[in-house]
Design goal:
The structure is a single chain. This protein is an alpha/beta fold and 592 residues long. It has 21 helices and seven strands. The chain has three domains: 350 residues, no CATH class; 117 residues, Four Helix Bundle (Hemerythrin (Met), subunit A), CATH 1.20.120; 104 residues, no CATH class. The strands form two sheets. Strands 4-3-5-7-6 form a five-stranded mixed beta sheet. Strands 1-2 form a two-stranded antiparallel sheet. Helix 2 runs parallel beside helix 20, helix 7 runs antiparallel to helix 8 and helix 16 packs across helix 18. The longest helix has 40 residues. The protein is globular, with a radius of gyration of 27 Å.
Length: 592
């Protein structure tokens, strides 16, 4: 590009502008992340499940093999949980914010490193555009504010591959200690994939360049030390967890989940092509332009390495193929490939913006039609949201296009729209104006304005989601308030149990383990027993309670003491708090 000097350097003016833009982007992201992680209670299954592991480390000091609910071996290695425990120690408690903070910090770090590598490889414009694209893709935004291990894994893998890419720019390709150190961290984040994936990407690149010998250019003693760290944890954890640890962390999570997920009920089983639609939604809105990027790369296939796009292309392609081969698939699994795809898109946008690449009439038409399709989709969604905020039921027409989980949230979204109509109309005015600008910029081939309008729309909608919809959804469906009521109702000395079901959020907000019961016969103290049960199982519990007989020949009845309906979510049965109460042998069961 015009401002890039040999060696990947650029002018002082461009350098100041690039770093200033990156600082502004990171500051804006920090505020956006804060809005989505602070004082937002857990309301999904995954977040409190990981928070319980952090709680075990922080409260019980179990750093090697922390246990969920006092007896359950976690499904993933502990790097994310260690970071969460350290954050909780600094924070003062194991709060939702403290547990989510490692994901947000990891996301910010990779956005920054992606931009920095982009500065060297593609110039200031390409680097900052890659960072903006990565930061505003939908799955990245969600994962950056979620207490799950995936963003920490993506960060570790990205650090390894960005370090490798930087070294390739500076001299003969090699796998540095930074590369292997990041791989070791990735293994501690989610298992062997943290080493297999970066090695597969780097090896593919070196083979493509005919430099496979570079794999041997390493300090193998230092590499062995670095890679022995996750092995040491596996050995110590196996010593504590035994066969149960091996079966879960090795066999289930790293063998059967890949080869035969149905055999271990791993879930998320999808066909090999499932990541095509998942990527369309996860990398939106920028996924609308990926076909144009791929067409451009095909036109440049003879100089991909010279243009510094071969490595990110292989990074994305190898990751996509490896995860597609695995039986268990979720959109979030693919985020280690997002920095590579963002780099490819960023350099493409920079090339057509600064004029170093002329798209040509037919190629411009592809970009324009992709932009107009994106604008049309956005405008339809905005119109439905505006009607909903006006008091008309409109967003239900989107239900057939949504996952069952998202469909279940429509009623809460509609309620939030009715209650926050002023904020929604302000956001929609901004977003609709930017969308109109998007369509106009595409028509006039104003590529910089087009990219700016897309980023503006995403930023506006992200702020709206974090400040209006997410808090309402969390408050309606979280067990935080319900468990606070239970803490006040249930005496400290009484036993609290789950009957034929379980919820990690309930345990997290209860602050101590909750036993699981398949039958009331296993209760030790009938007089002080309180039970959490989902509504469909209540009749079974009532029948079992009626069959119990205490030492004094008294009978027992199951009385509903509290109820939580998850904000009316149709996919979730109401959770009941039930107390066992004794009565005379000839007494009739009291009515609820």
């Amino acid at each position: 590009m015009a401002e890039v000097e040999p060696g990947g350097r650029f002018s002082a003016t461009a350098r100041v502008g690039a770093w200033g833009a990156l600082a502004a982007l990171l500051a804006a992201l920090s505020l956006a992340y804060a809005a989505a992680i602070v004082d937002i209670p857990f309301f999904t299954k995954g977040e409190p499940r990981e928070a319980l592991v952090v709680q075990s480390i922080h409260d019980d000091g179990r750093w090697v093999l922390p246990l969920r609910n006092g007896n359950e071996i976690p499904s993933k290695p502990p790097l994310f949980h260690w970071l969460g425990a350290l954050t909780a120690t600094a924070w003062g408690s194991v709060s939702e914010t403290a547990v989510r903070l490692p994901s947000s910090a990891a996301a910010l770090l990779i956005v920054a490193l992606t931009a920095i590598y982009g500065f060297s490889a593609y110039g200031p414009l390409g680097g900052i555009l890659a960072a903006v694209i990565l930061a505003t893709s939908q799955q990245w935004l969600v994962s950056a504010t979620t207490a799950r291990v995936d963003m920490v894994l993506a960060a570790a893998i990205s650090i390894a591959l960005l370090a490798f890419a930087r070294d390739c720019l500076r001299g003969p390709p090699r796998l540095s200690l930074v590369f292997y150190g990041a791989c070791a961290a990735a293994v501690l984040a989610k298992g062997p994939v943290g080493l297999v994936l970066p090695l597969a990407v780097a090896g593919s690149y070196l083979l493509a360049r005919g430099e496979a010998r570079a794999l041997l250019r390493s300090n193998f003693r230092a590499v062995a030390i670095l890679l022995s760290l996750p092995l040491l944890w596996y050995a110590l954890a196996y010593a504590q967890g035994g066969q149960a640890f091996f079966d879960k962390l090795i066999l289930k999570e790293n063998v059967f989940r890949v080869l035969n997920p149905q055999a271990v009920d791993a879930g998320h089983v999808r066909p090999f092509y499932a990541y095509l639609p998942l990527l369309l939604g996860g990398f939106a809105p920028w996924s609308f332009f990926v076909p144009a990027v791929l067409i451009d790369l095909a036109r440049r296939r003879g100089r991909l390495d010279r243009d510094r796009v071969l490595l990110p292309l292989l990074w994305f392609g190898v990751t996509f193929v490896l995860f597609s081969v695995a039986g268990s698939k979720r959109s979030v699994y693919l985020i280690p490939a997002y920095p590579a795809l963002a780099l490819l898109c960023g350099q493409w946008w920079a090339r057509i913006i600064d004029g170093s690449s002329e798209p040509g009439p037919s190629f411009s038409s592809v970009i324009k039609w992709a932009s107009w399709l994106l604008a049309a989709v956005m405008l339809v969604a905005f119109a439905l949201l505006a009607l909903e905020a006006s008091g008309l039921s409109a967003i239900e027409v989107l239900a057939p296009l949504m996952s069952p989980g998202d469909q279940a949230n429509l009623s809460v979204v509609a309620k939030a729209a009715h209650q926050n109509s002023a904020a929604i109309f302000v956001a929609l005015i901004v977003a609709t104006t930017a969308t109109g600008g998007l369509a106009l910029a595409a028509a006039r081939a104003r590529w910089a304005a087009l990219a700016s309008c897309i980023a503006t729309v995403v930023a506006t909608l992200s702020i709206l989601s974090a400040t209006v919809f997410l808090p309402q959804l969390a408050r309606a469906q979280s067990l935080k308030g319900f468990m606070s009521e239970i803490t006040a109702q249930v005496p400290a000395h009484a036993a609290l149990s789950f009957f034929r079901g379980f919820d990690y959020g309930a345990v997290f907000y209860h602050g101590r383990p909750i036993a699981r019961l398949d039958s009331l016969d296993s209760l030790h103290n009938l007089e002080d027993s309180w039970i959490l049960v989902w509504e469909p199982a209540f009749e079974t519990l009532r029948e079992q309670a009626a069959g119990l007989t205490g030492d004094g020949r008294q009978t027992y009845h199951a009385l509903v003491a509290n109820r939580h309906d998850y904000g009316g979510n149709p996919r979730k049965d109401a959770l009941l708090l039930v107390r066992l109460q004794s009565g005379a042998s000839d007494a009739q069961p009291p009515r609820d």
